[in-house]
Inverse folding.
């Protein structure tokens, strides 16, 4: 592949930049050889690629601050990066930018079981947070399917969720405080170690801000005692809409499962071939999990199964062992990977009111016919967070563009029924130009002003989140 051309002015600036970075970082923390920068040319949205000017891997908040100060003085854009698993192009570089990766910031700084908190550097992976406390009977609740790889930094950037967020909430509900380095190098502490903190709720602003406001280097997270027990039940149906209606009825009934996950036939088949989870061969499958003591589990499952029966499931099967439960979840967590083995796909991320699930699933089916592109659905149904996977052929000219057009129609449908463009993957580059469909000019202006305050030169994570026309007008 031919590398994009970088103009001579930028190349001269790059030489000066590397010289200055070398004053504050060791040699092995600066990646600037053109071939090596390719490792950072994209995230998990691989349809878009662009190698950065350079990448840096600092080891402390002080080093992050020094890097940002230099880039600020030299007017060089910076793209914060965790593990690069964003499905929205959130960590995609521009040719004139520096990738600031936190992969080497992995220390646990404090664990306090009395106050149920863990403080750590944000390069640590999501799963390794639970890994640090599980021997003592605790866990960290937000569980993105990418949790083996994704970093707490990116979870905060995208306000990530996961299967069990129906009960425990998403990242913002489990985040207590952060250390944020601003673009000019200033280090600020936001939030604290408790549920509430003095001053304005800036933590709520930072969580989910997609690297637009600063670089988060440390975080204080809430940890929880492991539940006594948990059990999933599999429910298979003849069609997607009936499964959607069943979810809506479970939520309406007021029982609170920890998770309600949905998969349709293409995803069930791909996942079963990949992970051998023991899923029934059906049009639609729900995994509903409840937690508690044995008695509590039985009580909740009885209510839930009664609702399921009223929708005539083709199969209703409670897990009978820990091994069976683990296989059911391994299947679900492998679903995206399993689909990726058989096809190129674009993973959408819209959220809708749960009562609208049958309507939107029908709409997706109609759009699939209109565009001639197959769709696999696998998503967190309990909180209405949909992930249609549109299948396309990356080698077929025009297929990606068709897929993008269809994706935009699906997301607009989510907004039309009272939902929003993103549940947990963020806006990134993928949905930035659809923001006009979600926000009126006044709403958008309020967000732009927040960006102005934190990053007046608009250097952080360029070309993301805000529509390009809006950004261009802002920067003049
Ligand atoms: C197979 C697969 C399954 C997935 N499943 C889920 C799921 O169930 N739930 C879910 O929510 N997501 C899921 N994702 C999406 C992705 O894993 C999440 O968005 C995750 O939080 C990204 O983390 P990361 O460390 O890879 O961040 P990156 O991709 O590196 O970055 C994500 C965003 O955060 C910003 N950012 C990164 N580091 C910092 C920092 N230090 N300070 C400020 N901003 C920063 C970036 O600029 C970018 O905008 C999945 C992805 C894949 C590939």
């Amino acid at each position: 592949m031919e590398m994009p051309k970088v103009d001579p002015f930028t190349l001269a600036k790059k030489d000066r930049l590397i010289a200055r970075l070398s004053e504050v970082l060791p040699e092995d923390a600066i990646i600037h050889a053109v071939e090596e920068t390719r490792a950072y040319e994209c995230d998990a949205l691989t349809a878009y690629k662009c190698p950065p000017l350079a990448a840096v891997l600092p080891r402390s908040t002080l080093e992050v601050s020094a890097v940002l100060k230099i880039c600020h003085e030299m007017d060089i854009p910076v793209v914060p990066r965790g593990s690069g698993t964003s499905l929205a192009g959130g960590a995609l570089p521009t040719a004139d930018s520096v990738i600031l990766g936190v992969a080497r910031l992995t220390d646990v700084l404090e664990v306090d079981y009395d106050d149920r908190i863990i403080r750590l550097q944000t390069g640590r992976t999501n799963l390794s947070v639970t890994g640090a406390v599980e021997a003592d009977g605790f866990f960290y609740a937000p569980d993105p399917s990418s949790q083996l790889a994704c970093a707490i930094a990116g979870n905060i950037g995208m306000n990530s969720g996961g299967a069990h967020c129906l009960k425990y909430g998403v990242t913002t509900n489990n985040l207590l405080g952060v250390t944020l380095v601003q673009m000019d190098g200033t280090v600020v502490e936001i939030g604290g170690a408790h549920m509430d903190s003095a001053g304005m709720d800036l933590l709520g602003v930072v969580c989910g801000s997609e690297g637009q406001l600063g670089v988060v280097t440390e975080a204080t997270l809430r940890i929880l005692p492991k539940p006594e027990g948990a059990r999933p039940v599999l429910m298979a149906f003849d069609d997607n809409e009936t499964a959607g209606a069943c979810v809506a009825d479970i939520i309406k009934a007021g029982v609170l499962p920890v998770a309600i996950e949905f998969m349709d036939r293409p995803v069930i088949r791909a996942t079963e071939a990949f992970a051998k989870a023991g899923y029934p061969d059906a049009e639609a499958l729900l995994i509903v999990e409840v937690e508690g003591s044995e008695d509590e589990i039985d009580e909740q499952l009885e209510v839930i199964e009664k609702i399921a029966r009223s929708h005539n499931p083709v199969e209703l099967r409670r897990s009978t062992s820990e091994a069976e439960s683990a296989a059911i979840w391994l299947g679900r967590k492998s679903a995206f990977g399993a689909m990726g083995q058989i096809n190129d796909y674009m993973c959408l991320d819209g959220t809708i009111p749960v009562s609208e699930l049958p309507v939107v699933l029908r709409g997706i089916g109609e759009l699939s016919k209109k565009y001639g592109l197959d769709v696999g659905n696998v998503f967190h149904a309990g909180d209405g967070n949909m992930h249609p996977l549109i299948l396309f052929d990356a080698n077929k000219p025009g297929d990606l563009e068709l897929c993008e057009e269809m994706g935009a129609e699906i997301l607009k449908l989510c907004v039309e029924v009272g939902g929003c463009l993103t549940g947990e993957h963020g806006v990134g580059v993928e949905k930035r130009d659809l923001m006009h469909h979600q926000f009126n000019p006044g709403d958008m202006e309020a967000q732009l002003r927040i960006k102005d305050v934190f990053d007046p030169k608009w250097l952080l994570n360029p070309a993301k989140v805000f529509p390009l026309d809006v950004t261009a007008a802002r920067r003049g």
Remarks:
- The longest strand covers residues 215-222.
